[in-house]
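quick one, 437 residues, struct below
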Amino acid sequence: MFKSFSLLKQLLVVILGLAIMLVAVVMPIVDSNVHDIIDDQMYEKLETSQRDSVEYDFMPSNNKEKAIYTIVYDPTENAFTFSNLHGNATTLTLLYNYLFGRDLEKIVNSRRHNTIESKGTYARETYYYRIMKVDDEYLISIMSNSYSDKLITDIRNRIIYILYAVLTIFALVLVLWVISLIRPLKKIKTYVDSIANREEATLVMDRQDEIGVVGNAIVTMKDELMKQEKVKEEMIHNISHDLKTPIALIKTYGQSVKDDIYPYGDKDSSMDIILENADRLEHKVKSLLYLNRLDYLSAEESELKPFPIKDLIEHIVMQMEAMQHIHIETDLDDVAFIGNEEHWRVAIENIIDNASRYMKSVIKITLKEDTLIIYNDGDPIDEDKKEDLFNPYVKGIKGQFGLGLSIVSKIADMYGYDIHAENKDIGVAFIFTKRAS
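---
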C-alpha cells in the first residue's frame, strides 16, 4: 500500500513517522537525562550550601522557590535546631516521618556513611535533601523541587522547539529534494507516453545522476526504435517489391498457359519459367522464416559445444564445387568452432554462395585457430555499403536482398563470433573471429 503513494506522499508519511518517533522515543530519553542533570545540580547546590554553613557558620535564609531549609540534629541530646523552616515542631515531625527520617537513622547508626543524598515526597511536593555528618552533629539541608520543575519544563520546551525546528528544516530540504526528483521523472513519463503514442517529443536531461542516465538511455532507446521502425518500413517495401515480381510472373504465365498461350514458344519452356520463379519465391520465403527462427533458437541454446569445423568445410566445398562448377582453394587447420554444426553449415554455404556470384576466378577458404576467412577475387565493396552489409532486407549491387549475409551475421553472433568484410588489394574477404571471453 505504501508503494502505491506518490514519492511526495511517501516522504510526508516518513516525516510524520519521524515526528511520532521523536515524541514517543526521543522525548522520554531526553526527560530522563534532564532529570538526572537537574538532580545532580540540586544535590550540588545542597552540598555547596552545607559547606558554606560549616565553613562560615552561615545558615541560609528563606528565598521563596530557591530556599534551602537547614536543620541541625544533635544525637546526644536527640534535639533538632532549624533556622529557616516555616512552621513549628509539627512541620519538623512531618518532614522527619515522610522525608528524611529513615536516612537520618541510617547515617546515625552507620559508621560507613558520612553523607546521604536523596529525595522524597511530602504534601504532593518533591523535596531534595542531603544529610552530612559534621563532628558529632548532623546537618540536614532540604530544598523544594518547585524550582527544578520549572527548570525542567523550560529545558524540555527548548529541546522540543529545537528538535522540531531541525525536523522542519530537514523535512523542507527533503521535500525540495523529492520535488527535484519528481519533475524529471514526470518529464520522462511524458516522453515515454509520446513514444507509446508515436508522437514527436524531445527530452533534454541536464543531469549526471542516475535519473539523467535513465533519461538518456530512454532517448537512445527511442532513437534505436526509430531506426528499427525505418528498417522495418524499408523491409516491408523491399520484401513486397521482391516478392511481387515472381508472383506476378507466376500469375501471368499461369494464366497464359491456361489460355493455351505460351510466352516462351511451347508449354514446357513456359512452365519451366513458372517453376523457376516458384523456386525463387520459395527460397526467399524460407530465408525470411529461417532468419526469424534464429531469434528463438538463440534463446534455446543452453549448452554450446565445440565441433571439428574442418570436416564440415571440406564437405561443403565438395558439394558446392559439384553443384556450381567452381573451384575453391582451401588452407584448413584441424580446429574446432563453438555452436550448432547445422547452423554453421548454413552460414558457410551462404558466404560461399555470395562469393560465387561476385568472384572472377577464385574462392579461397582459410581456417586457423578461432579464425575463418572466405576470400573471393571479385570487385571491392563500396565503403558506404559495408556498414549495412549484414543488415536484413538491404538490397545489394545485383538486386539481392542480403538475407543470406544477415543470417550469417546472426549465427556468428549467437555463438560468440564476429564477422566483417574486408577489401583486399584484389578482391574481398569475409572474416569470422571469435570474441574474447
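The domain at 303-434 is CATH 3.30.565.10 (Heat Shock Protein 90).
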